[in-house]
UniProtKB/TrEMBL annotation:
Binding site for ATP: 258
EC number, UniProt record: 6.1.1.17
Family to which this protein belongs: Belongs to the class-I aminoacyl-tRNA synthetase family. Glutamate--tRNA ligase type 1 subfamily.
Organism: Candidatus Wolfebacteria bacterium RIFCSPLOWO2_01_FULL_45_19
Localisation per UniProt entry: Cytoplasm
GO cellular component: cytosol
Primary site of residence: cytoplasm
Protein's name according to its UniProt entry: Glutamate--tRNA ligase
Length: 487
RNA sequence: GGCCCCAUCGUCUAGUGGCCCAGGACAUCAGCUUCUCAAGCUGAAAACACGGGUUCGAUUCCCGUUGGGGCUACCA
């Protein structure tokens, strides 16, 4: 093992940049995976490299095609387009077999016949004495002939890689030098058999075969890196560059889990978060762009709201944070409301479609959305927010009363409003009503008007509502209010 | 337990030895705005974990302590 390889750039200038996201289809697309994908994608797009999707489905038990579908759909939704066909490890078994055999032939790997129970017992014994749990290497001694014989007899076995005792140092783009002592690791299992590789081994083979230049992944993989490096060296593979991203954390600072928050990207999509907001939010979890200088004022400012293209422009992996970032749903909501506001109305209408009841007429939705746009934090809020435009909610007459005013006064004001509605066009009604409001007290006029129109305690202003409802409907609603007060 | 990583407002962060009695954003609180709500605007409160060094000078460099996290599978 050469520690001087630190100084040699693993991906020399000129080597094509190729990165990958390697999810395992054992669950729906996790936010953490989505963010790692985003960082990889951004890195590839920034440097004109290739972004590759590799499905790590070596665990047949836990893998399910439905999850692969969910993962791929998630990437598509986010607009993280990949550059080559989707690779599946389950379709590359011959490849792994070739390298496993090579390791076996070179005596760099061996068959292990220890039983799981035996192993577990040893592990616990070691742990109890305060030693790191490490495989004893007992089966290293078994000769290839004997191993073959025992295997033929049907004895259960797995394949272990001979981990050499050395110090492994690699340079992480985000964290700098990281050193491990491999004598603490023990011979790791690389495959159940020659056609059933395990994660750490398959990764090494694939990253090499796919000519991956930069491995950008979560911090939880730091401990896997030395094992992978050792296998690369045994096989004579070039070492990629590594960058380990900080983890997304739950509010209790542990790895993001369902205990606190939804962890699947699709949950956020269903709740009405925009892909633009998700991207913006995820990229800010553990990364910040360099502050910019406003040429006009000379002031330094830190941009917070990004488009995807803006991100590609300012992305720099070196600016990634080292510390885990807590998932802050409030910031996501704010970001979402900002992106909703910057969507143009027709686009917003399109995004809203899947959230709407079928019987809401399009034209009215289009008008209502203009009014409710700035009140929406999520697309799903719209139905609740704008429902009153489509059907006047039932409300108590009491709600029409403004503060200390009497019902009689309110009634009088509403009658006055009714005649205004009869006499004027909806377009210039605002001035007339405001004149009335100024003479009779704003609250006493505007409050009952708004309640009559919306049936709600909180809503947009009356004039905005009138624009959506039209004069006829507004007049009807005022009549209803009057009737309520009279009875 | 062992190994590894990390440590600036409640949260996301700017900051790479003096420009910092620490800047921005979210959240919070207060004020302004055609009645309410939202948005918007203005303002307030809010942090360099601790202890040693190094230095003329440390948030920034080094060491230690403490704290947090990750890993420790025939999962990925």
């Amino acid at each position: 093992m050469s520690s001087d390889s630190i100084s040699k750039p693993a991906a020399p200038i000129g080597r094509r940049i190729r990165v990958r996201i390697a999810p395992s289809p054992t669950g729906p697309l996790h936010l953490g995976t989505a963010r790692t994908a985003l960082f990889n994608w951004l890195f590839a797009r920034k440097h004109g490299g290739a972004f590759i999707v590799r499905i790590e489905d070596t665990d047949l038990e836990r893998s399910d095609p439905k999850y692969e579908k969910d993962i791929l759909e998630g990437f598509k939704w986010l607009g993280l387009d990949w550059d080559e066909e989707v690779y599946r490890q389950s379709e590359r078994l011959a490849l792994y077999e070739k390298y496993i055999t090579e390791l076996l032939d070179k005596k760099l790997a061996y068959y292990c016949f220890c039983s799981k129970e035996q192993l577990e017992e040893e592990r616990q014994a070691l742990l109890a004495q305060g030693y790191p749990p490490k495989y004893s290497g007992r089966c290293r001694q078994i000769s290839a002939d004997e191993a073959a014989k025992r295997a033929r007899k049907g004895e259960a076995s797995i394949i272990r890689f001979k981990v050499p005792e050395t110090k492994i140092t690699f340079t992480d783009i985000i964290r700098g030098k990281i050193t491990f002592d491999s004598s603490l690791i023990g011979d790791t299992v690389i495959a159940k058999n020659t056609r059933a590789p395990l994660y750490n081994f398959a990764v090494v083979v694939d990253d090499y075969e796919m000519k991956i230049s930069h491995v950008i992944r979560g911090e939880d993989h730091i401990a896997n890196t030395p094992k992978q490096i050792l296998m690369q060296e045994a096989l004579g593979f070039e070492r990629p560059q590594y960058a380990h991203l900080p983890l997304i954390l739950s509010p209790d600072r542990s790895k993001l889990s369902k205990r606190y928050l939804e962890t699947s990207l699709s949950d956020y999509r269903k709740e009405g978060y925009l892909l633009e907001a998700m991207i913006n939010f995820m990229v800010l979890l553990g990364w910040h762009p360099a502050p910019e200088k406003d040429e006009a004022t000379g002031r330094i400012f830190e941009p917070e709201i990004f488009s995807k293209n803006g991100l590609i422009k300012s992305f720099d992996l070196k600016r990634a944070q080292k510390q885990g970032a807590i998932f802050n749903i409030e910031k996501l909501e704010w970001l979402n409301s900002q992106h909703i506001k910057s969507l143009d109305n027709s686009e917003l209408a399109k995004r809203l479609e899947e959230f709407l009841p079928r019987d809401w007429p399009k034209e009215k939705v289009a008008a209502a959305l203009v009014v409710e746009k700035e009140r929406m934090k999520k697309l799903s809020d719209f139905v609740e927010l704008a429902g009153f435009f489509f059907k006047l909610p039932d409300y108590e007459a009491q709600l029409l009363i403004w503060k200390e005013m009497s019902a009689a006064q309110i009634l009088e004001n509403l009658e006055e409003l009714k005649s205004i509605f009869r006499a004027y066009e909806a377009l210039n009604i605002e001035d007339v009503i405001m004149k009335l409001a100024d003479s009779r007290g704003r609250g006493g006029v505007l409050w009952p008007l708004r309640v009559a129109l919306s049936g709600k305690q909180a809503s947009p202003g009356p004039f905005d509502i009138i624009k959506v409802l039209g004069r006829e409907e507004a007049l009807e609603r005022i009549k209803i209010a009057i009737k309520k007060l009279e009875s």
